[in-house]
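Example record

One chain of 277 residues, shown exactly as stored in the release files.
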Amino acid sequence: MTLGDERETSGGYAGTGQTRTRLPETSGDVYGGARRGGRSSSRSLVTVVGVVVLLIAAIAFANRGGDNSGSAGGGENQPKSAATAASGSRPVEAKAGGIPAGFAQDEQGVQSAAANYSVALGSADMFNTALRHEIVNTVYAPDAAASRQAALDSAYSSEAFLANIGLDKDGAAPAGQSFISRVIPVGTKTTSFSRSAATVEVWYTSLFGLSGEGSTNPVSESWYTTTYQLQWVNNDWKVTDFQQKDGPVPVGRDQRASTADDMTKAVEEYGGFTYAR
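Predicted structure tokens for this chain:
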């Protein structure tokens, strides 16, 4: 088991399908976007040509219309991807400690729980003792929460760790800077399931660092997959353990990094999501 919080300063925490998102009632969380060095002009030209080719191919495909008649094999031999349409189940409306709760006792419910718990465990609130205790007691099964609390407190209160990411001993950012720590789930996958226990993988990108002028740890982007073990406890899914690994990591694009002011403004104005299937 790896602690999602015990990462390097580059960032990152802790049926097949994708998650449907719903905006929360209030704004919240925080994490940001990394600076990338410029690439050669030849590389940029190849990228532009590739984009043009893809656009032409997309237009050609769209112009084929609804021609289902067809060639041998027709659509029957086409690969089938997981549906992204709404499941028909209403998103959970209950909350415990500000975190969605009351998930369905099925695969979609446990995937939603894992995605939402990823967001909470990867948030900046984990660096505040009182809020961290509330999060851990909410998302973990009672026995697991009791056994993990001390280890998490030790990790998040380490002055060396906090100094390494640019925070003071109380986990506060320097004056004029904002601490960003945000997890954005991209997809989930159930690898085992019963009505009492399940294992769910959550693939996500994370934003982590300090935004603001003079930051020595600018907000950067990282990609991870966390595997959660969950149990059905007291009529809801709760985490008992997790493991984190790097990736899959997509290829970066030739986009200019935003200014420190733009990054801070974006984080303050754009709230996070709650996740439901």
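Notes: Confidence is low (pLDDT under 50) at residues 1-85.
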